[in-house]
Amino acid sequence: MRVLLLLAAVGLCGAQYNANTQPGRTSIVHLFEWRWADIALECERYLAPYGFGGVQVSPPNENVVVTSPNRPWWERYQPISYKLCSRSGNEDEFRDMVTRCNNVGVRIYVDAVVNHMCGSGAGYGTHSTCGSYFNAGNRDFPAVPYSGWDFNDGKCTTGSGEIESYQDIYQIRNCRLSGLLDLAMEKDYVRSKVAEYLNHLIDIGVAGFRIDAAKHMWPGDIKGFLDKLHNLNTKWFSSGARPFIYQEVIDLGGEPVTGSQYYGNGRVTEFKYGAKLGTVIRRWNGEKMSYLKNWGEGWGFAPSDRALVFVDNHDNQRGHGAGGASILTFWDARLYKMAVGFMLAHPYGFTRVMSSFRWPRNFQNGHDVNDWYGPPSNWDGSTKSVPINPDTTCGDDWVCEHRWRQIRNMVVFRNVVDGEPFSNWWDNNSNQVAFGRGSKGFIVFNNDDWQLNEYLQTGLPAGTYCDVISGDKDNNRCTGIQVNVSGDGKAHFQISNSAEDPFIAIHINAKL
Ligand code: AAO
């Protein structure tokens, strides 16, 4: 009996760190700003067949409609109510998406914006995505309802009411982030309203949450609403399954609020990961790929089972948030594919792939004045659907990095090597590196300015393998490079420094 209770307790304790993906599905993709109807289709036609574990969706709740600038992407980070009603679709469409994605084994994770409501200067009226009335000036959000009592105004001690210093833990939690009205999360009433919203989503069938601006809430207050959450819907999840939690805490070091303070609640977004990997692959500050030998905790990152990792996110791909100029994005496609390839091959962390829309970048004095551009839209402000080209890429400025062959095939690679150890590391003391995942996969990078020409131990069984970066295995032949592994597990690799993609990846499911 005691053993059973102990086992049950251990199970519950670990639950919020588990993504609730189907076995063998190890990554999620952020389909930034996509409509629910398009995500449902994408789950069925692409994500399930290629083994994606789930989708992080943009905030589904009602938000303020911003017209100056014209419908920026960031208006969705200014809640007006918890009605499921946004540019991505209404509640019926949201339910249809969750059902259809779950039915093909692809999970949905909701970006939960619960630290605050809209900006203090948002005015009053019904300029919200569902037409709910609000008055930011007197803190009135009748569609929740929240009133002046539910905000932190009285507690913030800065003259401006804003966070003025990231060195003061009280300002960070009690003052406004970019003018956003800060909810008083210590109040049981506020926690209950947040939990009611998240439970509504859980009951529909979502598998977990990104907790936006978690840094700006006390860890204990987050726990306060997480403890009120239901178990996941047993139509798709085992009984007792808990929602996956990953908290957005930007911790690049040097601030008193750290990611580790939040591990008790769930995973934490590891921002050092993309910032450092970008620096290494760009070869800035004397960094080189051979230093990646002890990548992960060895670089001062969160424990692997507490980290949610990514190369770029919707903020730092356009200069918001943190990470700086080193962050690699689809704009630097060649280096970006290497970075994402490295991330997906390496065992550290739970991986999230970014899927973006293109916007007209316009740098003035080093700053992109178009960083606010919303998703591809019609004249009336509605979001365009995602057209699929005959070659399987996306049209209308939807970048669909997750459909790039190199990235999609590395999502498959990560699934194939799941559970295998990091092994057979090789480097040339510079920017040529290689490593394996036990006896199931091997990857080689050439980020130097000269050719790579090496005979390396792969750990793989003998045979002919298709490189999944330059091509695919198709009808028992390779459409790209072929690699022959001999009986001792060794193989010859040659990678030109001017190759379109200077890396090669092989795994046992791409063996002829
Ligand atoms: C918009 C307008 C504002 C206006 C406001 C209200 O742009 O001008 O005042 O509406 O009307 C998004 C947009 C915002 C937008 C907001 C609401 O990014 O521009 O404001 O929607 O529409 C902090 C937070 C972090 C947050 C990040 C953007 O800690 O939580 O700022 N990310 C999330 C979302 C994001 C969203 C929100 C939160 C709000 O992902 O999309 O905002 O819901 C330091 C701190 C970080 C801090 C950054 C930026 O970082 O450590 O915690 O992030 O500053 O303020 C070095 C340091 C690094 C430092 C960095 C930048 O890299 O090492 O630590 O420099 O200084």
From TrEMBL:
A molecular function GO annotation: alpha-amylase activity
Family matches, as InterPro entries: A-amylase/branching_C, A-amylase_C, Alpha_amylase, GH, GH13_cat_dom, Glyco_hydro_b
Catalytic activity: Endohydrolysis of (1->4)-alpha-D-glucosidic linkages in polysaccharides containing three or more (1->4)-alpha-linked D-glucose units
Gene3D superfamilies (UniProt xref): Glycosidases, Golgi alpha-mannosidase II
Domain Glycosyl hydrolase family 13 catalytic: 26-414
Cofactor or coenzyme needed: chloride; Ca(2+)
Pfam families assigned to the protein according to its UniProt record, in alphabetical order: Alpha-amylase, Alpha-amylase_C
Residues spanning the signal sequence: 1-15
Domain of life: Eukaryota
Entry keywords, A to Z: Calcium, Carbohydrate metabolism, Chloride, Disulfide bond, Glycosidase, Hydrolase, Metal-binding, Signal
Keyword ATP-binding found: no
A GO biological process held by the record: carbohydrate metabolic process
Tagged with keyword Repressor: no
Occurrences of domain Alpha-amylase C-terminal (ranges): 423-511
EC identifiers of the protein: 3.2.1.1
PANTHER family: ALPHA-AMYLASE
Family designation: Belongs to the glycosyl hydrolase 13 family.
Protein name, per record: Alpha-amylase
Organism: Nothoprocta perdicaria (Chilean tinamou)
Gene that specifies this protein: LOC112951218
